[in-house]
C-alpha cells in the first residue's frame, strides 16, 4: 500500500502546473466536453504509465541493489531539481484545431504524446523501480494524474488561479529530495 499512496501523492503534486495539466485546460476550453476528455486522460495515462512502470520493473531485474540505490538516489535528486523548472505547453503538444478524431481520441493521442518524457512518466519509472510493485505504482500514478487533471477539465481556469503552483512545486521537490536521500542511505 505504501507504493500506491506514495505514487498517488507524489504524482498529484508533481502534476500541478505541469504541461499535461495545461493540456487538460486547453482541451477543456477547446472542446467543452468534460467526460470524453477525462476518459481520454485516463486511457492515455494508463497506457503511458503501464509502459513506464514496466520499464522500472525491468530495470530492477537487471541492476543489482547497490547500483540501483545510487541510480534511484541520483534520479530522485534530479527530479527534485526538475520540479523547480516551470513547464510550458509546446505547440507540438497542443491539439490541432482541425481534428477528425473526435474529442476522446484527440485527448488520448495528445495526452499520451505530451506525457512522453514528462516528469510524471519519469517518476513512474523510478517509483516502479524503487518499490518493485508495478501494479500499485501504476495505479497510484494514474490516480495522481486523475486527481490533478480531472478537476482542471471541470473547473478549469478558476481552479488553476487559486493554487499556488510555486509552493506545490517546492513541496514536490522536497519530497523527491527526501526519497533521493533515503535511497542513497539505503533506507527501505
From TrEMBL:
User: Cross-referenced InterPro entries, in alphabetical order?
Assistant: GDT1-like
The record's annotation in Pfam families points to: GDT1
Instruction: Report keywords, A-Z.
Output: Membrane, Transmembrane, Transmembrane helix
- Keyword Transmembrane: yes or no? yes
User: What does the UniProt entry say about where the protein is found?
Assistant: Membrane
Q: How does it sit in the membrane?
A: Multi-pass membrane protein
Q: Which GO terms describe its molecular function?
A: metal ion transmembrane transporter activity
Q: Please list every transmembrane segment annotated in the UniProt record, as residue ranges.
A: 37-61, 67-85, 97-114, 134-155, 167-187
Q: What is its main location?
A: membrane
Write down any Gene Ontology CC term: membrane
**What family does the Swiss-Prot or TrEMBL record give for this protein?**
Belongs to the GDT1 family.
Listed PANTHER family: TRANSMEMBRANE PROTEIN 165, TRANSMEMBRANE PROTEIN HTP-1 RELATED
Protein name in UniProt:
GDT1 family protein
Q: Which organism is it from?
A: Ramlibacter algicola
Amino acid at each position: 500500500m505504501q507504493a500506491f499512496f506514495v505514487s498517488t501523492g507524489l504524482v498529484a503534486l508533481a502534476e500541478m502546473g505541469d504541461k499535461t495539466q495545461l493540456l487538460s485546460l486547453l482541451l477543456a476550453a477547446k472542446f467543452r466536453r468534460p467526460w470524453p476528455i477525462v476518459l481520454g486522460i485516463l486511457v492515455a495515462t494508463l497506457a503511458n504509465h503501464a509502459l513506464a512502470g514496466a520499464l522500472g520493473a525491468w530495470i530492477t531485474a537487471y541492476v543489482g541493489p547497490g547500483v540501483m540505490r545510487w541510480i534511484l538516489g541520483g534520479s530522485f535528486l534530479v527530479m527534485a531539481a526538475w520540479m523547480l523548472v516551470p513547464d510550458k505547453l509546446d505547440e507540438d503538444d497542443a491539439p490541432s484545431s482541425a481534428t477528425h478524431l473526435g474529442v476522446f481520441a484527440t485527448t488520448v493521442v495528445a495526452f499520451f504524446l505530451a506525457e512522453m518524457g514528462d516528469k510524471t512518466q519519469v517518476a513512474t519509472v523510478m517509483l516502479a523501480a524503487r518499490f518493485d510493485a508495478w501494479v500499485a505504482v501504476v495505479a497510484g500514478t494514474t490516480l495522481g494524474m486523475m486527481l490533478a487533471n480531472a478537476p482542471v477539465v471541470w473547473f478549469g481556469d478558476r481552479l488553476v488561479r487559486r493554487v499556488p503552483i510555486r509552493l506545490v512545486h517546492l513541496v514536490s521537490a522536497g519530497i523527491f529530495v527526501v526519497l533521493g536521500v533515503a535511497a542513497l542511505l539505503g533506507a527501505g
